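Q: Okay, next protein. This is Protein YIF1 from Meloidogyne incognita. I've checked the sequence twice, so it should be correct. Can you predict the 3D structure?
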Amino acid sequence: MYDPFVNTARHLGGQFAEQQKQKLTQYISTFNLKYYFAVDVNYVRRKLFIILFPFLHRDWTNKLSTNDKPMTPREDINAPDLYIPSMAFITYILVAGIVFGVQQ
């Protein structure tokens, strides 16, 4: 079914989305964000252990790769990551939603 209003709205919406994407990518590079989310299951397990028992962890230095760039969190347990803080925030939102939902 051909509806000129729907097609015009779809076209304008696509243009708006593309403009916003271009504006956003000039400030935030997805490559830079991928670095902070490069984790695996073993990293999360080890990092949670360090968060719960920091007194058992001895080496707190960050490691550098051969080209003097910092290693990814998957390779270096002391590298900063955004996976654990973002999952903690999402868990907080879910638990708060459940608690407030049960109370009502």
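A: Here is a summary of the prediction. The radius of gyration is 21 Å. The helical segments are 4-25, 30-36, 41-52, 83-103.
Q: Noted. On to the next one.
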